[in-house]
Amino acid sequence: MISAWLLAALPASAQQVVELPAEDRWLEPVIEELYQVGSVVTGEAWEQFGQIMDVAFDGAGHLYILDRQAQLVYVVDGDGRLIRQLGGPGEGPGEFAETAAMAVFNDGRVVVGDPSRRGYHVFAAGGGFERMVRMAEPGVASVGRVVAQPGSDAVVGVPTQSRIMVFSGAVFDVPVRFPVSHALVRIILSGEETVRDTIVEAWLPPIDSEGMDRVDIANYAPRPTSLLPEFSPEFHWGVLPDGGVAFSDSSTYAVKVAAPAAGVVRILKRPFPPEPVTGRIIRAEKDRRVRRLEETAEPGTDLSARRRGIEGMEFYTELSVIRGLGTTRDGHIWVLRRGDGPSDDGPIDVLAQEGRYVGSFPAGTMALPTAFGPDGLVAIVERNELGVQTVTVKRVLAGTSGR
Question: How far apart are CA 345 and CA 314, in angstroms?
Fold first, then answer.
């Protein structure tokens, strides 16, 4: 089902464009590391994660970790101790066939997307299984990242950023159209079947779908960006406390704020232009990929076909200014800028959603958090030198302006 809620958008003239300063105001954050989970040496058995798919906080500061390989959700208290676990592989109520995404509400309710069972598992705040909400869409059951929308029984997601897809025979019984935009949608979970509302449509670089048959369209529609050239602008987004969203959908520094039922109401800009992609940059990127291929390949593997694939790669015309975006519980937007190289992280800008530049964390201060919690809590998922995933929880206060 598709409802009409939120489909209205303000005319372009009603969008406020805020020109933020070019000069960086450096912040000296106060960072306190609270705990880390995921060690195979000193940690407990449950900490030996297989594949961390999502992490999130509830309003009490408890951390939730979705491990796709274990098919479990771990709930951790403020000291890093396991409180309980949800789910597990199986076919019974509250058991998972394929975990693709997790969202956590402030009150502790948990939603887990399961494309193999074509639905969303809903768990109560205490951890008990409540119900399964069926996916209304026929054909392809696809699930990507989802985030709880404050003040509602909905999660926010982007259908063109699917992580896992499960096909049924119905995919050939319904019209299949190739997407021309990134839609940020509410997935409403209050009934027996999902209902989708479009919050806002964002720019998707043009993709030539001429000549695609129904099978190609069905395969690529949930992940159209896989057809784009390297260095194409990525779509970054986060959910704001009022239920709106902030997002970046171009190579320029333009963070767009969309309000519920109003579309894009504000665009926050800084005068940092994208960098043109030169032959030197292309050559360096191809060489880097070949080196990585050779370092990770099994001895004796024939790499000639993959080397040819790297040499034949196509590239976008410019490097995007923005590499990542996150939103906090108090309405701030963290914007990760590109560093010196195409894949290097630069400073993190802190913006207020109403259009104010707070300041910037210098490059190297910290990674862009994977999840934001209450009272300055952040969670960062990383791989250690052994390739093991860890989750570090810190408390970050913006601090004062430094140099």
Answer: 23
The verdict on 168 and 45 lying in the same domain is yes
Here the tokens at position 114 are 């399961």
Same domain, 371 and 393: yes
Rounded Cα distance, 203 and 183, in Å: 9
Cβ neighbors of 174 (< 8 A, separation 6 or more) are 138, 139
How do residues 194-212 score in pLDDT, each as one tens digit? 999 999 999 999 988 777 7
Cα separation, 174 vs 139, whole angstroms: 7
Query: Which amino acid belongs to residue 281?
Result: I
* Three-class DSSP category at 247: strand
Location of structure tokens 């190739």: 178
Looking at the structure, do residues 306 and 356 belong to the same domain, yes or no?
no
Count of domains forming the chain: 2
Are residues 251 and 305 both part of a single domain?
no
Enclosing domain of residue 303 = 278-314
Range in 95-99, 136-140, 196-200 with the lowest mean pLDDT: 136-140
pLDDT band at 169 (very low <50, low <70, confident <90, very high): low
Give the domain-ending residue among 260, 295, 314. Answer: 314
What would the pLDDT profile of 363-399 be if each residue is shown by its tens digit? 999 999 999 999 999 999 998 777 789 999 999 987 6
